[in-house]
Specification:
The chain is an alpha+beta fold. It has 16 helices and 18 strands. It has three domains: about 270 residues, Uridine Diphospho-n-acetylenolpyruvylglucosamine Reductase, domain 3, CATH 3.30.465; about 110 residues, Alpha-Beta Plaits, CATH 3.30.70; about 90 residues, Alpha-Beta Plaits. About 35% of the residues lie in helices and about 20% in strands. The longest helix is centred in the C-terminal third of the chain and has 20 residues. The two termini are about 30 Å apart.
């Protein structure tokens, strides 16, 4: 379980959203049964994966774009906070109403409007789960590439708002690379449509790209046009053990000279190996201090050729105990180790601080070395794993929630990890966003002039500051 140490819950705040006339008007917009106000029922909507609770005053479930527009016009009139929420599985508090007000749950807006096989796009509402989109397009021989680890629970609206990543990012990019257009509603209730159904579109500013990753601070997404691709005929994964993390990470740059772009490249360090081996007994080699998983996709002949090439490259660069999948079942077994990491790490302590720093791929070995040194310096146990193929490493500092001195050491380790990532040409978040958890660190990664531009954009879209307040900007 991930839990944050950056902020503490402040209980339920009261705003104009609690006024009887506001609740009555909200009920008139969406129907009585779609407005929830009882404390026990709204409480689950006051937290995400960070597990800190900020209960809203009401949860409202719109069914249409017009509903969302009417809700935001009301909020703008009475000036109370509005926080959009999808699956509630984020790691930085992006969907948590830290300043009270209402939560707009997109659960009812869960329809796929259209799937175009000829033009390779899908149109859907924000409340549909990522896995449902993937399954629907797969029936037509297509794929929606983004694959965040939370794909079974996350909503597509949340994926877009956080610009979610995933394991297939090295080849296919993050969520924004698969979004062609959006419909969203601003804080003043205006309905905005951006982009469209075509891959090429240079008419005006790229507002689609602006909203991707904006964490619900510029508007509430009500519809998305997603880019699809033909599904590859085959996939294959190769797993190799290494004696050091440095060796494993140095392999990341060896594929490009061979003309190969793997679909996924995931690395696991010795502390993660120890945890999953104890819990699941995968039978890793005793000498393994790092594991690298490399996946390729394409037509069958290409995958056969590429997977053998991966196998050779890994072996020539220090890899041993190499396994190459020959079937879908074997491939799933190879990935079981990666899936087992997060729950297994809790064997080390009862508080896990998971940061998702990112650096250029060639500098991953330096990042790992720096993070391990930071852990030793602050006497804090650290485990590293993640999307090495795009430089996005999940750094997990373990500490004891009941011992304040261990938590304080972890705080210092987190800050120095962010500093190291920036020094290496990277930044403080690759896919989790900023939310409120990382807000105090934003100025480390964004220069003052750029920050002021961001604040100006926020002010333009949301003049009264009602959309998702308390996130990203501290002032």
């Amino acid at each position: 379980m991930f839990e944050s140490i950056h902020f503490k819950s402040e209980g339920r705040k009261t705003t104009n959203a609690s006024k009887p006339e506001v609740i009555a008007k909200l009920r008139a917009i969406v129907g009585d049964e779609h407005v929830v106000v009882s404390p026990e029922k709204v409480e689950p909507y006051g937290a995400d994966a960070v597990k800190e609770k900020f209960p809203p005053e009401a949860v409202v479930f719109p069914d249409t774009t017009d509903h969302v527009s009417a809700i935001l016009r009301l909020a703008n009139e009475y000036v109370f906070p509005v926080t959009a929420r999808g699956g509630g599985v984020g790691y930085t508090g992006g969907a948590v109403p830290v300043d009270g007000g209402i939560v707009v749950g997109t659960d009812r807006m869960n329809r796929i409007v259209e799937i175009s096989e000829e033009n390779l796009y899908a149109i859907c509402q924000p409340g549909i789960r990522t896995i449902e989109i993937q399954e629907a397009v797969a029936k037509k021989g297509l794929i929606f590439p983004p694959d965040p680890a939370s794909y079974k629970d996350s909503f597509i609206g949340g994926n877009i708002a956080e610009n979610a990543g995933g394991m297939r990012t090295p080849k296919y990019g993050v969520t924004k690379h698969s979004v062609l257009g959006l419909e969203f509603v601003t804080a003043t209730g205006e309905i905005i449509r951006t982009g469209g159904k075509t891959v090429k579109n240079v008419v005006g500013f790229d507002l689609t790209g602006l909203v991707c990753g904006s964490e619900g601070m510029l508007g509430i997404i009500t519809e998305a046009t997603l880019r699809l691709l033909p599904a590859p005929e085959a996939t294959s994964t190769v797993r190799a053990s290494f004696k050091t993390m440095e060796e494993a990470c140095h392999v990341l740059t060896k594929f490009t000279p061979e003309g190969l772009l793997p679909m996924a490249m995931e690395v696991i360090d010795r502390n993660c190996i120890g945890a999953i081996e104890e819990n699941f007994a995968f039978g890793f080699a005793k000498e393994a201090n790092a594991i690298l998983l490399v996946a390729v996709d394409g037509d069958k002949l290409q995958v056969e050729r590429d997977s053998k090439l991966v196998e050779r490259i890994l072996g020539e660069n220090g890899g041993f105990d190499i396994l190459r999948s020959e079937s879908a079942g074997e491939e799933n077994k190879l990935w079981d180790a990666r899936r087992a990491i997060s729950p297994s790490l809790m064997k080390y302590s009862n508080l896990k601080i998971n940061e998702d720093v990112v650096v250029p791929r060639s500098r991953v070995p330096e990042l790992i070395a720096r993070v391990e040194e930071i852990g030793r310096k602050h006497k804090t146990f650290v485990a590293n794993f993640g999307h090495a193929g795009d430089g996005n490493i999940h750094v997990n500092f373990m500490c004891d929630r009941d011992k304040p001195e261990t938590v304080e050491r972890a705080r210092k380790a987190v800050k120095e990890t962010f500093e190291a990532s920036i020094e290496l040409g990277g930044t403080i978040s690759g896919e989790h966003g900023i939310g409120y958890v990382k807000a105090s660190y934003l100025e480390m990664a964004v220069d003052p002039a750029t920050l002021e531009v961001m604040k100006g954009i926020k002010k333009l879209f949301d003049p009264k500051g009602i959309l998702n307040p308390g996130k990203m900007f501290l002032s």
